[in-house]
Amino acid sequence: MPKVTLQSIADEVGVSRMTVSNAFSRPEKLSADLRARILAVAEELGYVGPDPAARALARGRTGTVGLLLTGRMSEQAADPVATEFLVAVADALSDHGLALTLITAGVGGETVPARDVPMDGALVYVCEPDSTDLAWLRRRDLPLVTVDQEALPGAPAINVDDRAGARAAAQHVVDLGHRRVGLLNLHPVTEEAPEATPPDAPWNPPAAERDRGWRSALGAAGIEPLEELAAFRPVEAAYDAARRLLDRPAAERPTALLCFSDGYAAQAMRAAESLGLKVPDDVSVVGFDDSSIATAVQPALTTVSQPVTEKGRLAVAALLDVMRRDAAGGSPADPVRTVLPTSLVVRGSTAPPRA
Fold first, then answer.
1. CA angle 328, 331, 332 (to 5 degrees)
2. Are 281 and 354 in contact, with CB atoms under 8 Å apart?
């Protein structure tokens, strides 16, 4: 059968092609009865609607926003913080009639999503600054907003006050009387060659800021912490690193652990249990994020709360503002760097050290 087009419907109804087009894209220009008749004929003929690519070309926009992620989607789905952020972004975009396109950094092949997928703008979420995918987005001159990373020149940034949150966590264990403290932080391992990753490779900004916050409070108290780094995946990496911190003679073992995330903290609690140690009697454990993990473990986790959902909503709002300015052809506004506050949530995983 020949392909059904707008002209096919127009001939059947006895109206112009533009009238049929208005029935789909500008319904306010037609009476309700005429539009209903056009749509009925279109359904009878099997018309599936205007071609999305052609509509995007005519409008000058695609109706979708990209989100550049580091790591596979399976990793994001396993992380409650990343999942909460993705849901917040998707919901905020949906409120404005926009779709979300997920772009995984480092995808090879004939199609490079960051280069080839149509989008009106993009959010860049914890992505390496030298990422080739980020370079493609910038080369396309798309409206961009960064989240949880160093700001790009001329682009708004949404960040969390990781340093202040970590400082509060460290001060909490200091105030409890702990003097032997361990840090369990993120290792900057690259997927391409983990064994070749230099020890001084740059961390992602949240990990670096949390390290600075911990050391600020501990240094002021004259405490030199022990430290172990663990890759984000697999989860056993954090477990193994925590065991290395805790599997020491009692006089050398940390009595408190400050962890990169609630997920790391949960693995630290598992490691302590495997060594016959009780939390918080033998070792206090502090997480970061206040995710669903924090209240799922026993004892409930002392942690630093960050406003993940608000972070997603603000990121979308900032991007929509840039997109509107870009579409209007006006001069870009000075980029704003928003830093969201954090707060310490004290629960049962921390206590004074044994005498």
1. 95
2. yes
The 10s digit of each residue's pLDDT in 202-247 is 457 899 999 999 999 999 999 999 999 998 878 789 999 999 999 9
Q: Is the pLDDT score of 151 beyond 90? A: no
SS percent in the chain: helix, strand, coil, step 5? 45, 15, 40
First to last CA, the chain: 86
206, amino acid identity: P
- Token pair 């921390």 is found at 350
CA distance 183 to 225: 7
**Location of structure tokens 């979300």:** 100
pLDDT of residue 198: 46
Closest by CA position to 120, among listed 302, 319, 274: 319
Rounded to 10 degrees, the C-alpha dihedral 205/210/216/217 comes to: 170
Global pTM value: 0.80
* Alpha-helical runs (H) found in the chain: 6-13, 17-25, 32-45, 52-59, 73-78, 80-95, 113-116, 132-139, 162-176, 205-220, 236-246, 262-274, 293-296, 308-328
Count the alpha carbons within 13 Å of 276 in the hemisphere toward its beta carbon. 4
Mean pLDDT score of the chain, rounded to an integer?
87
Q: CA 158, 139, 340 angle in degrees (round to 5)?
A: 0
C-beta atoms surrounding 20 within 10 Å:
27
Q: In whole angstroms, give the CA distance from residue 79 to residue 13.
A: 54
User: Residue 51: which residues within 8 A CB-CB, separation 6 or more?
Assistant: none
pLDDT at 194: 43
Distances (CA, A) of 226 to 219, 252, 258, 309, 342: 12, 10, 10, 33, 25
Calculate the alpha carbon distances from 17 to 12, 29, 38, 312, 335 in Å.
11, 14, 11, 42, 44
